[in-house]
Amino acid sequence: MKESLSKEDLERIRQAVAEAERLTSGEIVPYVVPRSNTYDGIAWKGAGIAAALALAFTAVVFQFYEGWGLAWLHTGWGTATLALAAGMVGGVLSAFVPPLGRVLAGQECMIRTVHRRAMKAFVEEEVFATRERTGVLIFVSLWEHRIEVLGDAGINARVSADDWTDMVARIRDGVRSGHFADGLIDAIGMCGTLLEGSGVERRDDDSNELSDALRVES
Predict the structure, then answer these.
(1) In 146-174, which positions are buried (b, 16+ CB within 10 angstroms) versus exposed (e)?
(2) Which of 88, 105, 122 is the last residue of a domain?
(3) Does residue 113 sit in the same domain as residue 192?
(4) Which of 33, 80, 94, 109 could pair with 217 as two cysteines, CB 3.0-4.6 Å apart?
(5) Which pLDDT tens digit goes with each residue over 139-188?
(6) What torsion do the CA atoms of 196, 198, 202, 206 make, to the nearest 10 degrees?
(7) What does the CA dihedral 6, 11, 12, 15 come to, rounded to 10 degrees?
(8) Which domain holds residue 83?
(9) Would you call 214 helix, strand, or coil by DSSP?
């Protein structure tokens, strides 16, 4: 992911964080990962489904096909070979075709997985370690098409989960249009405005407690 962002993009994102934090005591931490989990089970699931479909196809052939062209299917090795080949293809497609992988992983599983990964990032980046507990993590997991915004106690006391909706939508639009950096920059600006308007005001003695740089996991 980092390779797809230019140095200019990374600097623009850093500057966007600095500008947004000029309005508020909030500390904004943008974080992006290619995916939150490898979902190893989806390859086996895809292989099993493909093999089952192959066996179902074989059963249909046995029932309705009376020609000689598929005689090899009537042998044990023929049926086993077809099921094995189908399973291998299904497993490979499940592992390397993201839309199919997401279907097999399941929406609920991806939601739980991305949330756990976001919580891990929240702790690793010490988003909780600000003086007024005003850290905000903007977490983007690209493979799952999931975005989470996690605020610390000082943020959650003033901002509800629904207040992040427009921010999340802007990042998602940026990803879909191929302009991820622009979407994230706009969302960071929206975050600063929201925090300022929600009473997370900047104090005279505020300092920059967390890095403004985009965290990118390769």
Answers:
(1) bbbbbbbebbeebbeeebbeebbebbbeb
(2) 105
(3) yes
(4) 33
(5) 999 999 999 999 999 999 999 999 999 999 999 999 999 999 999 999 99
(6) -120
(7) 170
(8) 41-105
(9) coil
